[in-house]
Amino acid sequence: MIAPFPVSWKTRLNDEFNKPYFKELMSFLDYEYSRYTCYPDKMAIYEAFNHCSFEETKVVIIGQDPYHGPNQANGLCFSVQDGVKHPPSLVNIYKELETDCNKPYPVSGNLDGWAKQGVLLLNATLTVRANDAGSHQKKGWEIFTDAVIKTLSREKDGLVFLLWGGFAKKKVKLIDSSKHHILESGHPSPLSANRGYWFGNGHFSKTNHILAGLGNKTIRW
After folding, report:
1. What pLDDT digit, counting tens, does each position of 22-61 carry?
2. What angle do CA 110, 75, 6 make, to 5 degrees?
3. Which residues are catalytic?
4. Which backbone phi and psi does 210 adopt, to 5 degrees?
5. Cβ(77)–Cβ(61) under 8 Å?
6. Average pLDDT of the residues of the chain
7. Rg (CA), the chain
8. Average pLDDT, integer, range 105-112
9. Residue among 20, 25, 22 at smallest CA distance from 136
């Protein structure tokens, strides 16, 4: 049994839970978690939603898969547990944050502090088998998380979507650009960042500039 889905989101996504694809996804997860080591922990699968209610969401960052190494994934995209070595993509996120916002490099790789301020850290696929990247893709999670993005786009106004890399940029078709703000750049992974597609995007300061212009509280990155 996985953790219950947070009420603030469930009321808006209730139709999804009754669809055949979602029931098949839950059966698949029961099988996977009973036979293999999978990440994140079953009780942390919905942490992105637990930490950031629908009402409080003002920024959306879209990742692809959870980390698949031991003790890394904590249910928030790009985030790891306290005390865990920062993965390369997170290192580059923090390096950009250093230069963009003149902040010292953070000690912890846990991004729950961002989430609690209204940053939805959403992976397109919410689970993965240990040491097997992409193993839970195309099992139904993408249908569900696309529904999350479409619901946010439809029911809220003035959100800031940060689309990092080719995979995230494909989600632009789900977002109403006439009433939301979309910032795109390369992915923070070393392959993209070292080619000049990540560093210097200024997304953290740009996000706060947009939020301030809308009369919202800025994010303490």
Report:
1. 999 999 999 999 999 999 999 999 999 999 999 999 999 9
2. 120
3. 65
4. -65, -45
5. yes
6. 96
7. 17
8. 97
9. 25
- Give the DSSP letter of residue 165: S
Whose tokens are 């569900």? That residue is 144
Measure the CA–CA gap between 62 and 163, rounded to whole angstroms: 6
* Cut 0.70: pTM above it: yes
pLDDT in tens, 163-184: 999 999 999 999 999 999 999 9
User: Between β-strands 128-129 and 38-39, what pairing exists: parallel, antiparallel or unpaired?
Assistant: antiparallel
Among the listed residues 75, 84, 123, 76, the one whose alpha carbon sits nearest the alpha carbon of residue 106: 84
Amino acid at 53: S
Give exposure, 86-100, as e/b (b: 16+ Cβ within 10 Å).
Answer: bbebbbbbbebbeeb
Instruction: Give me the amino acid identity at 201.
Output: N
- Reduced to 3 states (helix: H, G, I; strand: E, B; else coil), residue 108 is coil
Q: How many CB atoms lie within 10 A of CB 107?
A: 9
